[in-house]
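ok here's the first one, seq then struct tokens
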Amino acid sequence: MLRKIWAIAYVNLYQTFTDRNLIIIMIVTPLVLATIISLAFGNLGGGSAPIQNIPVAIVNLDEGASGFNGGQIMVEAFVPPDGEPGAPASQTPDCPETEAAASTAPAMSLTDLTDAVLLDDAAAAKAGVDEGSYVAAVIIPADFSQKMSYSLADRQVEVSSIEVYGSSASPISASIIRSVVEGFANQLLTGFVAAQATIETVGQQFGLAGMGAAAANLSQAIACASGRTIVSIEQQTVEGEQADFNPLVLFGSAQAVFFALFTANATAATILEERRNGTFQRMVISPTPRVMILFGKLVGTFLIVLVQLLFLFIGFTVIGSLLEGRFQSIWGDNIIAIALMLVATTAGTAGVGMITAAVGKTAEQANIIGSIVSILMGILGGAFFAVNALGDFEFLTRLSVVRWGSEGFSKLAGGDANILTNVIFLAILGALFFGISLLIFNRRKDV
């Protein structure tokens, strides 16, 4: 039986790797496409994070409370002093810039990450996002500081939501702004409440009156200090060493798995071409169970996809090294984990590809079905845009081998070897789709 399985697999291997046009589609096209996207994404080979100067509109409607204006502190973190066209007058003193803060300033601050301007009209800011002038509009409500007010008499702190109006055309950048604003607001609230609670408790315990001004000043200082901590932006590996973001990792892995799906579907669909030219019928009348025929296709598909992924990942490594001017292993240094991810991704992709051989009535129809399956998994897996842009439907990404494959390789590139979940899900998806394909294939009388 093993000889028959290998014989079926060998035919597919020979047909695939002797077809020059097919090799171009399998290997050259994803290499070129991912490289172009990575270069367009920005600063590939520049040695620093390419995500910067994100255009943002800030609208501060905060009216302040008790000498404290959290909205103004947020504005000062995002908008440089010379970038405040039409800014309303500051209701509080600026956050002081100490020598210590200046000497320990991070390599990238919020003013580097964003190209923010201050507007006074929320509708105009949203219109700018819709027109493409801004990636996001951050609208600070009028009661932002007021709802932060805390006292021993009234310990209830309300939450006033900051609205982040993001552009659907730039989901990654919009998500970054949303995350930064959320972290900044949380630290601002923590600092303000901590200062108010401390001052009021001390005043009550020692019978000191007139602590309101001190509370406001301390609140301002702690909030400013808390705000600065969110300004430090750098990418870290699990070991704590600084790591540069390489877009080839993100786009390369997603495109590699995406094109591998097309290869798997096309290889599996050859069983329908063999039925048309009579080869399949000769295999059926021989003492070869139908399950062995499909297993032979699976083995052939597995080996073809494995070779394809291996060449692609070597190719991306070479391209990344040439652009950096030095050799670098963009997928990390854990060779065993990389090999495991390659095998798991190949198995998952090959299993999914078998569905075309099971449900297609003709080779042409199978190729159409395979393309639909590949595109759907590419959409769900982040081959075209960030998966968090799916919002409430993000859970559907768990059905995509593109998601689990690209995520696993991205982890390895960042120094995280915790890929067991990715390997398990890839194996489950591959086995599930192959099992469904085998069940349908064995029940068909026309194949």
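and now the second one, same deal
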Amino acid sequence: MNKQQVKAAIVNIGDELLIGQIVNTNANVIAQMLNTLGIEITEIVVIADAQDAILRTFEQKISQNDIVFVTGGLGTTNDDITKKCICLYYHTSLIENAIVKNHIQDIRKSRGLSIPDSVLSQAMVPQISEVITNPIGTAPGMWIHQNQKVLISTPGVPGELVAMLEEIRLRLQQTFLPWNKIDRHFKISNISESGLSDMLQEFEQGLPDYISLAYLPKYGIINLRLSGRHADKQLLEQEMNRQCALLQNIAKDYIFCDQNIEMAQLVGQVLKQQHKTMATAESCTGGLIAHEITRYAGSSAYFKGSVIAYSNEIKQHILHVPTDTLNTQGAVSEDTVKYMAENLLSLYNVDYSVAVSGIAGPDGGNEQHPVGTVWIAVADKNKCVTKLHHLGFGRQRVMDRTCQLALLMLYQLIQDK
């Protein structure tokens, strides 16, 4: 198929998704795979295990897209009706697939399980479909290519979907001719989203129609994504390089990273390169910063540990914050986090430290220190930088924002070297 742009819709079937019983991770992994192929995702929808809803969605999405990727409804219970709906939509019937049947028998026997008729019924697939191998489960995926449109149907079990994605990706590449896709990423700080938009207004207006700019703000950081799609790979690469250079020149005072990377990973990357170490002293975040840092393999090379200084006793006896400071200025104060950060350096013998203390809520605030008040300090052996933030309401939101802002401050301190 030779088209200017291949379009796809993602349809996730399941009452459990609609009521929030489980998180819809399938949409995420499918969207990422399609995006890497340069396929435009027009819509992600979640629908009930109901025949009318499924048929109506098939009618709408197949008419509007080149690809419709469907998950769910391929099990053995009464509400698993996706195959039935596929047969109704395409006016076809189910037939037994011998390869799938043998696979089901092999996988059940290898697990010491019986093979009831309900499980064996999964070998029945629409006559017009091609089977997509499910290496870890019994329900196969199905590929239907009719009238230059492709319907892909897979089980809703996340692990089984992931196990099938590589075969699906190869089939999509062979069937369609997606345009080349390039994404470039920039991390921006110390400017508001509206201020950045005003700064880049002329730049954005001058972009060719096959390149777009997206603003993705998150906890005090703006992630800019410059995306390009074009059939001519060389032309696209040249124009993307030109536009990136223009963007970097305009926003050079605010761009601190040109990688698509999380802050904790970026901090770890720099520390590892410089053979430096760090530790955290956390009150209101309860260890969240340490958790973010240690999510990444190899973090033991640069992360030594953390003090969860939730109480004033720990601040006093472990981090040696003076009693007078706590009594007169309080736990949520500049001097308190400064003592926490500076004393942690020698306590853990590290090159850098991060300290936070604040009021995450929903209670504990007052007129002087409302919920969302947070002090952050970052330090090395020569310098300690402190900053006051008012992060609003929502306990988890305050904790998440504190974590990311602290990591940003640490990164800036390291880069100031």
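notes on #2: The chain has 16 helices and 17 strands. The longest helix spans residues 395-415.
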